Every structure is written in C-alpha cells, then in structure tokens.
Amino acid sequence: MTRTTALNTGRDDFLSWAETEQGVTLPLRPADAVLTLLAIRGADRRSGVPEPTPQLVRQVLHEDLPVLLPATPDGLAAVPRVVSALADRVRAANRLNAKRHARLLDAVREALPEFERAMSDPHNLTWPRWYASLLHADGVDPGDPGAVRTWLAAHAATPPGERRALPAAVTRADVAARTFAARALLTEALLNASTADAERSSPAGPLLPGQPLLTAAPDELERLATELSDRWTADGLGEAFDGPHADLAPGPEALPHIALADRFLDEHLDYYGDSAVPLPPPPALPAPEDIRGLLHAAPLPAALAAGADGELRELAERCGFPGSATSVWTEGTPQQLTELAADILAATVERVAADTAPADSTRDAAPDEDRRRVDRDADADADADAEGEENGDEDESESEEESEDEYALDAAHVLYALYERGGTPDSVARKAADVTGWTLSPDLEDAPVLVPDTARAAYATPSPQELSSLLGLPGLGETDREALDGHAQALAAVVDRLAATGCVFRAGDAYGLTPLGEAVVRHVLTVAHVAAPDRAAVLAWSADQLIEAAEIWPPAVAVAALTSWTAHRGGTDAAWSELLAAVAAAGHPTAALFSRLALAEIPTAPVRAALTDPVVGAHARRLLDDRGEEAPPDAVPLSARAFLILDELHAHWSEDMRAFVAALADHRDDEPAPTSLTDAFDRAAATWPGGAAALLEALAATGPEAHGILGDLRARHPDSRIAQLAARAVRTTGGSPRAGA
Prior knowledge:
The chain has 741 residues and is mostly helical. The protein is built from 35 helices and three strands. It has a three-stranded antiparallel β-sheet with strand order 1-3-2. Helix 31 runs antiparallel to helix 32. The protein is globular, with a radius of gyration of 32 Å. The protein starts with 10 loop residues before the first helix and ends in an 11-residue tail after the last helix.
C-alpha cells in the first residue's frame, strides 16, 4: 500500500455513503482529486471527510483541478456531482445547517462556468493531463500500468510528425512550464498540510501518516506528489516520465529556448514595459514546408545532426543530439523543426554569453540605447549622472562603457533588437558606435542599411568616408575608424557565431535576421508571451490598434503597415479617415505619427476633412502645408492648435534633456541650463489669444500628456508668474509628473 492510499480523506467511506444513501456511483479519480485537494488546502475533517466551503470550492475548481485533473467528459461531469454529494454528506453529519448548505450548493453552481472554461483552456495543459487525454481517447484503462506502459512505448516509436499535435494555442515550452508550476502548486500544498498536521490535531486523525514531510527524505515529497498525479491521471505516467520516456514530457531544463524566451521578455519589458505592446511583424515568414530545408542548410545545425564531436559535443547533447532531436531532424513537423532550431539558437546564445562575459559579470540593466525612450528616461538618466558627478565617481563612466559594450555583445539582445526593427537590416559599425557612446542622430536609430550582394567574408570596419555617411557624422578620419574598430570587430564576431545557426546573416557591415531567424525568434517570443503578430494579424487589427503600434514601430515598417492595412480595405478615403479618427480618439497626435501617414501617402481628401477636428486639425493643416497645399488657418479649432504646440514642446523638452545629459557627461558644470522648452513656450504664448495664462489652460485641457511639460515649466521657467500659473494648470491634467519635475 502506497502512502497515497493511506491519505486520510475518508474517500472510501464517502463513496460508499454516496452509493448507499444517494444511489450514485462517483468516479474514483475525480472524487479522490476533489477530496485530496480540499484536504491539503486546509478543509476541516471533523465529519470524517474534507468539508468544503465556498472559498475552498472556488480555489479547488478554478486553480487546482484545471492543472491536475484530465479534462475528460466523465471527469468534467463528475466534479460538480462529487462536490455536491460532499456538501450533502457534511450536512448529514450535522456540520452544516440548511442555510449554509444551500449557500455552498449555490457556490458550486456559480463556480462551474469558470471551472469548465479553465479545464478546457489549452494554456492549463500539463504533460500528465495531455497524455491522460490521449490514453482516454484511445480507450486505454488508466488504472492498468501495463497498458499505460505499452501505449507509451508505441507512442514513442511513432515518428514525431505522425503523433497527435498539441493544441495550436500552446507549445511544448508552455506545457513544460505549466507542468513545473502545477507540480510546485501541489508540493507546496502538501508541505502546508504536513505542517498543519504537526501543529494541530484533528478528531479524524492526521491527514498524512508518518513523519512530517519537512523532515522526511528529500525525495519523499516528490514521490508523494508523483503518486497523487498518477492517481488523478494514469498509473505509471510519473515513472515513465522520470525514466524511459523523459523525452515525451520535457521539463524547462530540457528546452533551451525557454531560457532565451525569458531573456526576450526581459528585453521587451526594458524597451516597452508591457509584454502586450506588439512588435512589428516580419516582412515575410517562410512557408511551413520550407523550414526543414532552411534548417538543414544551416552549418551548425547540420554539424550537430551529423554527430558532432569535440567542442560541439556538449552543444549537441544540450539540443538533444543524438536522441529526441535526431528523429525531429529527419521526421519532425515544421513546428517541431522550428522548436529544434530555437533550441540550437538558444544554446548558441548561452555559449556566446559564456565566452564573451567576464567570469564575475552579470547583466543588471540595459543601457538606454533606444532613442524612442529619451522622452521617458532622459531626466532619470540626468539625475543619475548628476548623483555620480556629486560623488566624484570618475571611474563610473568607464564601468558604464564596459557594461554597455558587454550588453552590445549579448547575443540575446542582438536577436531581439533585430526583430524589434521589423526585419530591416542593421549596421555593425553603427550599432558599435551607438553603444560606445558616439552621438548619432536619433533618425538613424531604425534606418535600414543597404545589404551588399556579396558573400560573407572576414569583417572589416568601413572606411572613414563610408563611416561618415553611415553614421551621419561628416569628416571622420582614420583615427575615428581605429577607435571604433575593436568594438565593431567584437560585435561582428558575435553576429558571425549566430549566423552559423542559420538564423542571422552578415554581408559586409550589414547584418539581420534570415527568414528562418524571423520564424525562430518569433516562436521564442510567443513562448515568452510577448505580442509578436504576423502580417495577417496586423491586417485584421482595428484602426486604434494599428495607430497605437505605428507610432512606436520603425518608420519604414510603420509606413508599410499603414499602406497594407488601408490597401486591404480598398485603399479608400474612408479607410484613411478611420485611421485619422483613431489618432484623434487616442488624444495625443504627434509629428512622428503624421510623418508616417505622410510617407504612406495618405490622400489629401481625408486630411482636409480632418482640419476641423478639435484634436488633429492643426497636425492635418501642417501636413497639407508641407505638401504645398493651401489650408485655411481659421478652419482649425484652437484646441487642435494646443495639441500641436504640446507636441512641439515635447520635442523641445527632449532637446533640453539630451543637452543636459551631454553636459554632465562632459563635466561642463558651468554651462547654463538648456532653455529650449521655455523659449519655445514663450514663442507660442506670444501669439496665443490671451497670452501665456490662456495657453497654459489650453495645454492642461489636452489631458494627461501635458502633465510632464507643465511640471517642467513650473520648475524651470524663469518668470515666476508663469511658473505659478503652470503649477496651477498641472493639477488639472490628471497625469503624473516626470521624475525630477
């Protein structure tokens, strides 16, 4: 008799009572799961069975059972009957009065819709639940360990491409992670129950006979959790997954790309702060039938599959060669081959990190490379630099440069940054100059580079003349090239190691993701649950979704998306007007967004129709002016002019912050504080009806986007009267002030 059969839940007596008193035969596995989970969650057992409460019912039905009990039709139907019969049993033992009994039954009914949804949610799949569902579909008795072993052996012998696939919404990494989380949930609950046994007694006796789990042998808790899982799914699954069929149920440690997914999530949160902010779609993902050929043509994967030896042996084993990866290489589906390519890429990233990072270094935070984040972070950077200046930390700039160099050589960052560019190639030299601290135009941040039609050769930093053009810095000489050469060579070496996976290319100074790389990186991003739509998904977006994304995507990518989206809707004026309405609804039109609309060749008619809009009218008029088309200024509402001025003030604020940070970095303490923002405000106020006071009120009326600007005017405007008026206006915006404002 195993320890699980001795778990003191009163199961056998309860099942006998239900059959005798209520004439119902309750299925053993769902009943055992419900009683055990209620008991280890702390249900009182004075009546001889775990006594459910509304709160415990919701916890067990919504959190526990959906990751521990298979979603078979019989099981789904049995759970509410088990809980209801249990409530009746507790009522019969005089542990519930009629009112509390009715409330408990109501709680069961109310919990059922979410229980049924959670049980069918593919993201709640675990390996035991998945294989139990396959066994059930094939009519295998889950209580017969021999039959289960025979089925598993036959399944393992089936070519990967012929096995039943996981639901389309989940990947092996999702199931591995959920299995790990479900096991953690179960073991934590068992530990808590064992502690409760030791701290207080129950009239029904201890729930877990024997010594407390905290003092038991190290593997006792895992053994007990495995036995319980088998009791609720199928006998023998745990032993098979720990032994001969471990490859059928891989854990996170067996899938290297899970670690890379975590890194990508960190990168995305560094850039955008929210995993739901969408990345731009790749220009063209490879067809599923092409994945095999692309992977087989890559030098490193081909070497691993052929039987790598020497220094590649460890990498081969990390990726499953020889073993589970071998059959995927020859017989896998496009999805399985993409996962294998992701494992090879992730393992390569790990090796690059081990080879390039100092032994005691860690990646604490990303440098502020992304020029789109200047508005949000420049003041915080200025505060940090000022603090370092006050502390006299002259070595800090050197350590920061070293940290940024290490970050630039971080292969995970290289991959994410390429995908974040929307598939446009980047420049090794430009990237090296950026992270080395050269002052480059923000306009170059996402600018694509020309890819030469030549085979990859040993990297050579471009000539001074080429660098001047590439970096937008005229007059660079050989000394400048030599200063950049070491950084560029180091980055190119990382790029070339990634190129061996078939996911990255380098041609001269240009580098980017290959079609295979786009597919693989997108797969890893989906494992990380980072929004990474494809082109079809973007075409199906609402105008609001597209406008929100287009403002943060690289200009060329955003323009292509706007053009494709409207073309998908017939390219009509109505489609473009829908986009302009979305800009107005968002309430913060920007020059950058209207520049993208202009580059997408938005027709004149919808722009002219937007002149009278109280939010975007002034931006629309400027677009027409830029085209040389007349647009009557009287048609534009004053409120729309305020939105345009606010947009311009944001640009001047960014200019001030860049100047402030640069002065601190160059130790120019005696330089006057920058005044681009305050000067621009004064110029706008000079022509605004009612002057500065009226303009401040109009800016405040635009909403929370004005809060930071008004806060800066309050703090920095030399005219105390205007500063006081700004302080009054800032309280009406409903936003949050910038750090340091």
